[in-house]
């Protein structure tokens, strides 16, 4: 098992708008292709502000590649990406692949 950990820095004042657009147009398409996320969070009070962090669990890098390939091929996802890019809410994105420690079971 691996976790795809993504952090988005959202421009100040844009977090509610980003979450509204993603929640109505992006999240449903991701659920269809990726299943339920391992976690989806916002950082608003302590530490770096205006961040969105989400994590998706995959069986392997090959599983991630197949699921994300299907997501990228979905016209609804492409429409969401175009709207999101046009809105310009995201200032920066960081992506990490996490592997569980040997003593921790992600299942």
Question: Nutshell version of this structure?
Answer:
The chain is α+β, with helices and mostly antiparallel strands and about 110 residues long. The protein is built from three helices and four strands; from the N terminus they run βαββααβ. It has a single domain, classed as Alpha-Beta Plaits.
Notes on the protein architecture:
The relative contact order is 0.31. Strand 2 (39-43) and strand 3 form a beta hairpin. This protein is 43% helix and 30% strand. The chain has a single domain (2-99), classed as 2-Layer Sandwich (Alpha-Beta Plaits), CATH 3.30.70. The longest helix is centred in the N-terminal third of the chain and has 20 residues, at 15-34. It has 107 residues and is an alpha+beta fold.
Helix and strand topology:
Layout: E1 2-10, H1 15-34, E2 39-43, E3 51-58, H2 61-73, H3 75-87, E4 90-99
Antiparallel strand pairs: 1-3, 1-4, 2-3
Helix pairs in contact: 1-2, 1-3
Pfam families: NIPSNAP
Domain NIPSNAP: 5-103
InterPro entries: Dimeric_a/b-barrel, NIPSNAP, NipSnap_domain
List keywords for this structure.
107 residues; single chain; alpha+beta; Alpha-Beta Plaits; 4-stranded antiparallel β-sheet; 3 helices
Structural class: alpha+beta
Please indicate the percent range of residues in DSSP E strands (runs of 2 or more). 25-35%
The helix count comes to 3
Low-confidence region ranges:
none
The largest sheet has its strands arranged as 2-3-1-4
């Amino acid at each position: 098992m691996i976790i795809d950990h993504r952090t988005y820095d959202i421009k100040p004042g844009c977090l509610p708008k980003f979450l509204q657009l993603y929640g109505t147009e992006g999240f449903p398409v991701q659920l269809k292709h990726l299943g339920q996320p391992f976690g989806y969070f916002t950082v608003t009070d302590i530490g770096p502000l205006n961040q969105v962090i989400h994590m998706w669990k995959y069986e392997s890098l090959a599983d991630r590649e197949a699921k994300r390939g299907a997501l990228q091929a979905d016209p609804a996802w492409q429409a969401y990406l175009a709207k999101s890019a046009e809105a310009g809410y995201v200032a920066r994105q960081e992506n990490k692949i996490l592997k569980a420690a040997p003593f921790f079971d992600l299942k």
